[in-house]
């Protein structure tokens, strides 16, 4: 059982990570953040089914649904294979996650044309999964640091599909003292976002 000090630390971290938004947004979006430490709580088959059901009902261009996923639980050979494909930095913390997942997309349409929107649609599906996970108090940490070429070899990915990212999945919580000092600093750092004026332009670019 967690001691009171760890529980208070986790609650405070969760409060500190709530977005300091300029305009009111949906509570689940404000609460979402990407931890590198997770609670000692099993992510069940039912949990994963609900996450993938959220993906299933994501929007996609021409309803092609180009997303694909490989996931594995901690303690399995497949989990270790995913770890082997991660960047050195992500190997410092991700091996403790309850579940790891590789994301991929189908590069072409069924009639052989390049699907320019496939990566966009994969992102949309992960957005759906992220909000569903937040509703369930499950955290997702999306990782760009993955050797996709190695992942293709290790998992024998068929031609026409492309590994994109990795994701660590687990319930929020877990003692920060399990992390190195460097990672603890990143975990507790104040969240920062660019102001809207830097990316949302009215009428013409840059305005």
Automatic annotation (TrEMBL):
The keyword Isomerase does not apply. Pfam families: Nitroreductase (PF00881). InterPro entries: Nitroreductase, Nitroreductase-like. Residues 182-207 are annotated as: Disordered. Keywords: Oxidoreductase. Residues 29-171 form the Nitroreductase domain. Belongs to the nitroreductase family. This is Nitroreductase family protein.
